[in-house]
Amino acid sequence: MNEDSLSQLYLKDTAFQNLMQRRIFNVLLVASPYDAFMMEEDGRVEEQLYFEYVALNLSSPPRVTRVSNTAEALNELQKKVFDLIIMMPGVDVSETFSGATLIKEVAPVTPIVVLTPFSKEVSRRLAKEDFSSVDYVFSWLGNVDLLLAIIKLLEDKMNADTDINEVGVQAIMLVEDSVRFYSSVLPTLYKFLLKQSLIFSTEALNEHEQMLRMRGRPKVMLARDYEEAVELYERYGKNMLGVISDISFKKAGEKDKAAGLKLARYLREQDPYLPVILESSEVENEAKVKELGIGWIDKNSKKFPVDLGNAIMRDFGFGDFVIRDPETGEELLRIHDLKDLQRHIFDIPAKSLLYHASYNDISRWLYSRALFPIAEVVKMHRFNNIDEAPAVRQLFFDLIVKYRKMKNRGVVAIFRKDRFDHYSNFARIGQGSLGGKGRGLAFIDSIIKKNPICDNFDGVTLTIPRTVVICTDIFDEFMETNNLYPVALSDQSDETILKYFLQARLPEKLIEDFFALFEVVDRPLAIRSSSLLEDSHYQPFAGIYSTYMIPHVDDKYEMLELLSDAIKSVYASVFYADSKAYMTATSNVIDQEKMAVIIQEVVGESVGDYYFPSFSGVGRSLNYYPINDEIPEDGVVETAVGLGKYIVDGGLSLRFSPKHADKVLQTSTLDLALRDTQTRFYALDMKNDPDTTFKVDDGFNIAKLRIQDVAQSGALRYMVSTYDFRDQVIRDCDEGEGRRVVTFANILQHDVFPLAKITDFMLSKGQEEMGRPVEIEFAGMLNINDRGKGTIYWLQIRPIVEKKDIVDDAILGLPDEKVLLRSNTALGHGNIENVDMVMYVRPENFSSSNNSLIAREIEKINRNFTERNEGYVLIGPGRWGSSDTALGIPVKWPHISSARLIVESSLSNYRIEPSQGTHFFQNLTSFGVGYFTIDTSSNNGIYDVEFLNRMPAVYESEFLRIVKFNSPLTIGINGRKGSGVVVKPDIIEN
What we know:
Elements: H1 3-8, E1 26-30, H2 33-40, H3 45-55, E2 63-67, H4 70-79, E3 84-87, H5 93-106, E4 112-117, H6 120-126, E5 136-140, H7 144-167, E6 171-175, H8 179-201, H9 207-213, E7 219-223, H10 226-236, E8 240-246, E9 249-251, E10 254-256, H11 259-270, E11 276-280, H12 285-292, E12 295-298, H13 304-315, E13 321-324, E14 331-335, H14 338-344, H15 350-358, H16 361-368, H17 372-380, H18 389-408, E15 413-414, E16 426-429, H19 435-450, E17 460-463, E18 467-470, H20 472-481, H21 485-488, H22 494-503, H23 510-520, E19 525-531, E20 547-550, H24 556-573, H25 577-585, E21 595-601, E22 605-607, E23 610-612, E24 615-620, E25 636-641, H26 645-648, E26 654-656, H27 670-675, E27 680-685, E28 702-706, H28 707-711, E29 720-724, E30 729-731, E31 740-742, H29 745-748, H30 755-770, E32 774-785, E33 788-799, H31 809-812, E34 819-823, E35 830-832, E36 837-841, H32 851-868, E37 872-877, E38 899-905, H33 921-927, E39 930-934, E40 942-943, H34 945-950, E41 953-956, E42 960-964, E43 970-974, E44 979-983
Parallel strand pairs: 1-2, 1-3, 3-4, 4-5, 6-7, 6-8, 8-11, 11-12, 15-16, 16-18, 17-33, 36-37, 37-38, 38-39
Antiparallel strand pairs: 9-10, 13-14, 18-21, 19-20, 19-21, 22-23, 23-27, 24-25, 24-32, 25-26, 27-28, 29-30, 29-31, 32-33, 34-40, 34-44, 35-43, 36-42, 41-42, 43-44
Helix pairs in contact: 3-7, 4-5, 7-8, 8-9, 10-11, 14-18, 16-17, 17-18, 22-24
């Protein structure tokens, strides 16, 4: 079976939530007060059923309504719909059956069950009655288990056609005509099946999955004569797990003492491997049964229920899978669960594997555990020759791996240290919330599960990194146990707050879980914030809290210390000054914020002492900067070599539209390619210094490397081209002399790796599933060989909130002399209101060497605006938010959070490639903040700085000036057209 065939298994995952759709919720009990009292044993039947359901981890126990006679029953049926009617005969049995006929006329589809005490006299009377209106007769033995069995038998019958024939749920057929006997056997059989299913369901990944998995238990079909048994087999035989049959029952309307033997022969003709167990009270039948080579149980045995349980366990695939020597019958190996089978599949001797596969033992064992997709493939595979054993072992192993990966997809599993392994994908520690990013990752995983193409996207796998989320309740416990709120909510410095947090202790229960994590993940770890407010639809906290990366070290105690300190540092970042300022700006309360933490393997590989992915990137499904044939709905992607922090920090990334990937503006000319492409990138420094302590700056162990230096190792192949300075051309290879230029040409133009197709899929599918425009983050590893091309990891998804305001075209079309600002590459959409102040960097005094001083001054001023709940227009040269002070003023979003419009202007002696809002994109879109790019020296936009200079200043310093207008400015942006204006206030008429 090749990889394509295996990937089809993805489509066959069992939707357990769609099983058992028809249930019995309301039961009408027709019984005299005395009979009902005796039945209830001084209590309510409903309560007994409830406790029976709870004990077996079943959901939705039925409600019971009691009436005394048929007349009352008919009255109740006028008022309410019932799913089952149970009737208990009084002195006159005939009255019950005639009453059933009347009830059937009113409720023709509702099953009616007659429940009668057992006696020979009752049996004699029953023989004379008309059973046409009654579905089943049971003998009441005073055991509430029988009520459970009746309800489950009828539910099985109601759901059989869909669940068995369409989904593959297995059936066990019981053939028995003795009312007394099947009334005794069914409760035993159901109790056994439900308890076995409860055991197997613990293999599920969380409690919800566990409850749903119970629905996949085998169904029980009851046949009371030969013809009914044959009919049931013909209907459900292809999914029959086994048959339990009496020997003496009716055939062709007459009692036939050998009917069970005849049925067994018929079944074996149809399916030689179908397990059949015959039971009889006539011991002379034992020899005849043994001749057929099938199971036998003596009905007279005092331990009949135990014998029946053992026979089902042995023949129907329940319990452990016992690997035997086919010649001696000796037990060689015992398999407990699917994970165990995966672990030991290569240890099973070839002759034993052939023997068990030949008798469908393996598929039967899988079916009994509700592992339908893999059981079906195993059953269909014909293994006829012992020479095929190595290939069969590999096939079964690959199937199990495929199945376990599939089951882990789209499910947030409960982290269990004994079950977390290389096929675990997403798990949670704790019972609280996953936080914003955690929810986003779980959502991404569900998208991937629904789209099988992600498994093999033109040779590339699209997935999420292995992830464990520490939920918000652990944060609460950490804060309260260590009494950290007093210092956290104080005005102490960030460094002081971090110091207190690092001295605190995480809950000790996490230690064993972390050790289990280290056993599985042998890569560096990223510890990311995932707060309740982060990445929510209208509360954009992206980039406010810290993300730390730690190298992988072999010493698990050293690794534990690194991970613990990283988690505590992320927790501390909730209470840093920037976070508090941001909370105030967004009208949130800091002590209501809760932090989950995402522990994630870092995408990448080691190159020397450094670790980094081939590339990282961000994408947006709305592109407010379309060029050439692009339209805003095509989306936009920015990608760069190395860690994604480089893009977030404002480094030069490569920007392209996924639908027009062969047209990249930055590489369209030689000058642009040499000037506007990446020359450095970020990587994790793997040289762990035990003396290094965690700092407020989460990038303290991130190295900034030169593209030229690392390209020599070959690690950047396909992403870099070579500048041939002799011929003045860029060649799309990483060989030869000359500077290496990050063009992604082999990926985007020559399609060596389908980056454009996959990012287009992520953006379009993400927007479709989220129902709104989205921003995504991703990272990828190129590994181009015969087996594939590599992997892209989808790291994050969050919504972009798009303002729907319509901007008056008359305002946008005003002549230049009437506007203060005009941008032809405006970011944002709609009208910005209630802004009457402009803060601008004074061009005549500007020098990039002062950018850090300017940033600090703006931070202080912004704090005052935030306190007054006022907004302003911010204008300055270069890239706002760049961590490289040579490129722009290095503010963070909290430092300018009250700005309603941000303008990047150029000076004749200071022309920087515009950032297009990269650093604050999520914040800009969610708050409706505008972003203008203006280059007056290239006649690209209007910035009338002289108009501002003529106005009186409400604040003026060496670097900054603030002016206030008498009325709010008119600010309009058409994001689809990329145009925006700020109108001079005396132009608009009242």
